[in-house]
Amino acid sequence: MSETQPTAAMADERIKQRSRLREAMIRPELGGIVGTIAVFTFFMLFAFDSGMFNSQGIMNWSQVSAQFMIIAVGACLLMIAGEFDLSVGSMIGFAGMMIAIFSVTLGWPVWMSILITFAICIALGAVNGFIVIRTGLPSFIVTLAFLFILRGFTIYFPQTIERKTIIGGIKDVAEGDWLAPVFGGKLFPGLFNWFGEIGIVDTFERGTRAGQPVVDGLPMLIVWALLLVVFGHVLLTKTRFGNWIYAAGGDAEAARNSGVPVARVKILMFMFTAFCATVFATCQVMEFGSAGADRGLLKEFEAIIAVVIGGALLTGGYGSVIGAALGALIFGVVQQGLFFAGVESSLFRVFLGVILLGAVILNTYIRRIITGEK
Amino acid sequence: MSETQPTAAMADERIKQRSRLREAMIRPELGGIVGTIAVFTFFMLFAFDSGMFNSQGIMNWSQVSAQFMIIAVGACLLMIAGEFDLSVGSMIGFAGMMIAIFSVTLGWPVWMSILITFAICIALGAVNGFIVIRTGLPSFIVTLAFLFILRGFTIYFPQTIERKTIIGGIKDVAEGDWLAPVFGGKLFPGLFNWFGEIGIVDTFERGTRAGQPVVDGLPMLIVWALLLVVFGHVLLTKTRFGNWIYAAGGDAEAARNSGVPVARVKILMFMFTAFCATVFATCQVMEFGSAGADRGLLKEFEAIIAVVIGGALLTGGYGSVIGAALGALIFGVVQQGLFFAGVESSLFRVFLGVILLGAVILNTYIRRIITGEK
Amino acid sequence: DGHASQKYILVSHAPDSDSWWNTIKNGIALAGDQMGVEVEYRNPPTGDLADMARIIEQAAASGPNGIITTLADYDVLSGPIKDAVASGVDVIIMNSGTPDQAREVGALMYVGQPEYDAGYAAGLRAKGDGVGSFLCVNHYINSPSSTQRCQGFADGLGIDLGNQMIDSGQDPAEIKNKVQAYLSANPNTDAVLTLGPTSADPTLLALDENGMAGDIYFGTFDLGDEIVKGIKAGVINWGIDQQPFLQAYLPVVVLTNYHRYGVLPGNNINSGPGFVTADGLEKVEAFAGEYR
Amino acid sequence: MNPIIEMRDIQKHFGSVIALAGVSVDVFAGECHCLLGDNGAGKSTFIKTMSGVHKPTAGEILFEGQPMNFANPRDAMDAGIATVHQHLAMIPLMSVSRNFFMGNEPVRKTLGIPFFDHEQANDVTMEEMRKMGINLRGPDQAVGTLSGGERQTVAIARAVYFGAKILILDEPTSALGVRQTANVLATIDKVRKQGIGVVFITHNVRHAMAVGDRFTVLNRGKTLGTAKRGEIKHEELQDMMAGGQEMVQLEGSLGGTV
Amino acid sequence: MNPIIEMRDIQKHFGSVIALAGVSVDVFAGECHCLLGDNGAGKSTFIKTMSGVHKPTAGEILFEGQPMNFANPRDAMDAGIATVHQHLAMIPLMSVSRNFFMGNEPVRKTLGIPFFDHEQANDVTMEEMRKMGINLRGPDQAVGTLSGGERQTVAIARAVYFGAKILILDEPTSALGVRQTANVLATIDKVRKQGIGVVFITHNVRHAMAVGDRFTVLNRGKTLGTAKRGEIKHEELQDMMAGGQEMVQLEGSLGGTV
Ligand SMILES: Nc1ncnc2c1ncn2[C@@H]1O[C@H](COP(=O)(O)OP(=O)(O)OP(=O)(O)O)[C@@H](O)[C@H]1O
Ligand SMILES: Nc1ncnc2c1ncn2[C@@H]1O[C@H](COP(=O)(O)OP(=O)(O)OP(=O)(O)O)[C@@H](O)[C@H]1O
Ligand SMILES: [Mg+2]
Ligand SMILES: [Mg+2]
């Protein structure tokens, strides 16, 4: 038999031609890109002179979007790996509270409190993952249980230890700590000062800080968000582990048979999600100086929504980190933009629902074209 | 060829023997039954003299359980049909608010307000279902969008119309209405009076109602719960439509190929879930006389939890209404029982999470035995 | 001597993550210790008032000597409370509701701060200070008492509430940025009103960041660590202290003495509104979030 | 004699894919009509338009001489077309008897309400499965506990039981062992003798030759023609199924065994 | 010559089901060892213990003479066992090239970090698929857009590419058309000639006879014995696969066509 068999020219005449442009446009992020353009166009038209696009306004929605991004990256990778984490919000509350209890109540050094909290939370993420893997239960149920359990402890601990459910004073104890600024600090204050001087950034006109630039540095929150997005994107698309994430979510059985360590991948992703939640919590605690038992409520849904708006498939195996980041951006811009535009704030939820639905329908259409799903 | 081919004695020697007792015990409701027994035993031991099992106490947890049951029946059938409804809680708030706005603000007759609300809510359920069917999106996302949209309107309408988020005075306008007692009334007052006289039920000691029984009738809430459970159970197990529900949830494609009208079944189940939510809301509004924008928060999860504790499969195709009802009972008894037992209230969520996890693991084990899943 | 046999249950309407109610918990705990009675705190986990009605029924069924409860919604709660009273349980209304409603449900007395009135008083005070427009940062818009506070403030100022109340949600970063967004879209706003520590703490930071701290008129309901610091720093003009400690502590004391010795004050007790300003802050500072 | 069903120039497009580019086939009562062809030739798509799963993009369906337009599988079933799909239409979590009657539940009226007649369903299921040579533990055994071959047999038994006029089998033997395959072929033979028209899809020329009366070969969405039993030889059929390409070469090295 | 792999008295129980009740099989380099047997005989279970998916309940595995204990499929792959499972190990949402290298991703280090070498992966995929006679639109085409036969071919191409010492194929031809089947059989032949041991599972005696060097028949979790090519006739093998039962009767009515 000859080594190279004649190629079976597969079904050429049976496939209608598709334009190159259309081919090029069809990518998982397309929904996110279209949505982002639409949202910015909308607010440019209807809220341009509300201050939404001056330096302060930009910083405003950037920070909100950055928050969403941090948890969206974790949720995105986990969702692509075929699982869900409904305990993200409770984990945020729990992590913040742990840092506060360790540093304020127990008086440990802040850096130690932060590191131990990271260790505890990542371990809890691993427990989540371990239960899901071992019992084969849907992660919806397992993490729903953790949603309740963690929130319960977040209320119970400070209540019994400190007799309060908001613990403040973290800024005081964090003074001079080497790790705290990594989460709560701002980068390049000098640069922004200079921006203020040359007029790129506005300066305060009244109040205690008149003359200073309105934006006096790049908050670490945004830096973390960007770092996590880049990390997640590279991990997913450029490494072998990324291929395993897709495989684990696409078909765990098939992946396992092909030698992908599915259990390890999924548990690691649960841990990464917990890591992201803890970054979120630590940034928040360091910025606001207090931890409350009600922090992080409903954040799990917001993360999932951002990821889904960004084109990921709820059932796993498909999605992109860039898309999720754009989803978070859309989410943040819409939320803040409605305030700038002066829309009755109780309608925000209605808008959110409608945008979610619209984005998902668009994404589904795009995905069907890409994957040839039926 | 002979008509009756010799039977291929299938693999008898390859199946280890299983005891008859074990066969008999293994049913979908088993998890619910075991849970119910465990929960009652527990509270009998630890909260017996707290008033939990006097007539007033029984009425208390019965009413809470009945509430859960009403939404659990809808959620159960929908889940078996392979879908989810996360908008149940918002639907409850929305329905109550509609009734209040129609009857109090607009001054329409109460019966008309109730009927129109039912029509609107069932139509919204159909919209939910229609979007899920037409777009092929996961119901998680579609109903999550409705969760936000409905809650948004529930806050927005009374806010703009009445400038408050709670509308009261429904009891006054419901006076003499023929439909209101169907949701807010009580059955057999005479019987309970007699119970009071012969001492089965305690009587009030003082005040305007001294001498009357503390439980003065069977609330319609409980009647609705029982009716819906019976209806759901019969529908699911005794009718052809019930078989279609199982089939639609087990494998929609296969069911469709076998001639089951899957789209119709699913949309009807979304409508039935909306119906149950509206019954819940109407009973609540008629009993308490007011509608608030915060009614029904998180009820979607409580319904799903009850159903899952009751042994249904989150991914559809498997479950039982009786199980869901027992799940609701367990949930109600645990919730109120923890209060009776005097447990620190912030720990309630921790217990809830642990019970949920335990129940689901037990049920999974049982289901694997029944269905021979791998 | 049988004194420890009294048992009192306090039922609140707050979701269990709401930090302000912590002072209440501490108040009854302390009163319970001091009086030698058993006290319990109950609340609906999500803040659903219908669930709260069931908790009152449950509390009544468990046969305590008295129930201390809020009257967050008269329609929902009056039935269960009347039933409790009729079944022989003494009731004191605290925190929300009005003295009239308390009498109507058959309660012994009312201890608290009527929300609308408190808002109204704050509004009058702000009007005296020259405020003509404001932003009300509502972090629990679902609950009626929050709206009453904002509405009262607007009425006190003599202006329409309109769009000046925002649904801020509970995430601090979102609250902070929403406040900033509102203020930059409406730069002529004279005053900010927050409804408790949850919204006040991020608002403080927002004002600090956008440079309006100390410049814009800032009033808040309910105290907390950061609020006290804000008052001290002159960023917050006043905090309305309804003294939740008293709302929890006094009813226990009153009920215990009533049940032991049959003595009862002849009138309702208004625990607030008391305006906390930069003067005399030390005690407040020491116990904010715990007993203040 | 007129054909029971006549499919005229059926076309079916899925988005940019042309699955069927005009296929005509008819089926007579009592015959076994074999549909053969390469992977992706369009066989499954074709029988799905026949059984109401897909609507043809163009073309006409005549059922007993009347133009028909099946809106969904129910319509086709009601008209008398029973189908065993390639990817089984069985639901693993449901019991055998519920699966057996799925979409065709027997009903007994009590108080005017049509209840699912479980007793009859169970009896029929046990009986029919016994006839096919499968002893169930009980009618409430879940399909998920059956082996692939057993499931296939349930699907066929069900189709035979309800298959009024036309029985469509899409690659029923592909996953079956020798004994089960013989069983299925015997069943086809039996059904055909009862006057039912059978459409039998297979990749195995021998299986086709064993029971087929006529053979239609599809290739890339088009018919290569229909032949009667005896008119065509094994090798010719084989060549046609493979599109006539380079079979010689392969045959050579593998000794005519495919 | 020693066998590459020797499975001794393998047992496997799933809960109350005894899937394998002691099966011994060995595979030599350069031979094609056919595993035959009825549905549910335990063929898939057996090769899954061989490829590290299941741990045997009892029994011993010797790989190149050394006792081996595969903890998971990775171990087996690393030892040189490549498997094409009956239910394909392909992920529809992923591109062909990602699927091709799933679990075996080529890596290129940049700054010491091992990155997935997409370029190499794409090139290899296109080349290997071309060799198997499949022209892809591109390496990033999703597997979901391929036909069943094409997917099967990707799976086999992948296994061949990575199949260092042993290649296991579980019913690779069951869903394939004539041409694709011929292709797969030719591939088996080619692989065997390269000195790789092939384990080939099929229900089709002819396919087995075409490429097999030895034939092991399983029946209800036990071996009925192993025969060399030429030692056993087509009919005998057929009888054994069906458990020797009543084949005569069926054969009669269907003309020896199964
Ligand atoms: N729902 C669909 N959407 C898009 N393309 C489809 C759909 N169904 C089938 N196709 C395409 O139509 C063509 C014919 O598919 P079909 O399943 O009818 O082939 P077949 O002859 O049954 O093949 P096999 O022998 O492998 O079962 C294939 O190219 C397939 O990918
Ligand atoms: N994971 C599992 N859990 C329980 N039983 C199983 C499992 N896997 C296989 N079995 C059972 O073990 C037996 C052998 O199954 P196996 O899949 O090995 O058969 P096979 O020879 O491959 O059959 P086929 O030719 O139909 O593919 C069957 O009775 C099957 O139901
Ligand atoms: Mg096919
Ligand atoms: Mg097999």
TrEMBL record, chains A, B:
Membrane topology value: Multi-pass membrane protein
Record keywords: Cell inner membrane, Cell membrane, Membrane, Sugar transport, Transmembrane, Transmembrane helix, Transport
UniProt-listed CDD domains: TM_PBP1_transp_AraH_like (cd06579)
Molecular functions (GO terms): transmembrane transporter activity
GO CC, one annotated term: plasma membrane
Protein localization: Cell membrane
Top-rank taxon: Bacteria
Record's function text: Part of the binding-protein-dependent transport system for D-xylose. Probably responsible for the translocation of the substrate across the membrane.
Protein's name according to its UniProt entry: Xylose transport system permease protein XylH
Organism expressing this protein natively: Actibacterium mucosum KCTC 23349
Organism lineage: Bacteria, Pseudomonadati, Pseudomonadota, Alphaproteobacteria, Rhodobacterales
UniProtKB/TrEMBL annotation, chains D, E:
Gene3D superfamilies assigned: P-loop containing nucleotide triphosphate hydrolases
Key word ATP-binding present: yes
Record flagged with keyword Nucleotide-binding: yes
Swiss-Prot/TrEMBL keywords: ATP-binding, Nucleotide-binding
Start and end residues of each ABC transporter domain: 5-245
Alphabetized SMART domains for the sequence: AAA
Highest taxon, organism lineage: Bacteria
Gene Ontology molecular functions: ATP binding; ATP hydrolysis activity
PANTHER family: CARBOHYDRATE TRANSPORT ATP-BINDING PROTEIN MG119-RELATED (PTHR43790), SUGAR ABC TRANSPORTER ATP-BINDING PROTEIN (PTHR43790:SF8)
Protein name, entry field: ABC transporter ATP-binding protein
Species the sequence originates in: Actibacterium mucosum KCTC 23349
Lineage of source species: Bacteria, Pseudomonadati, Pseudomonadota, Alphaproteobacteria, Rhodobacterales
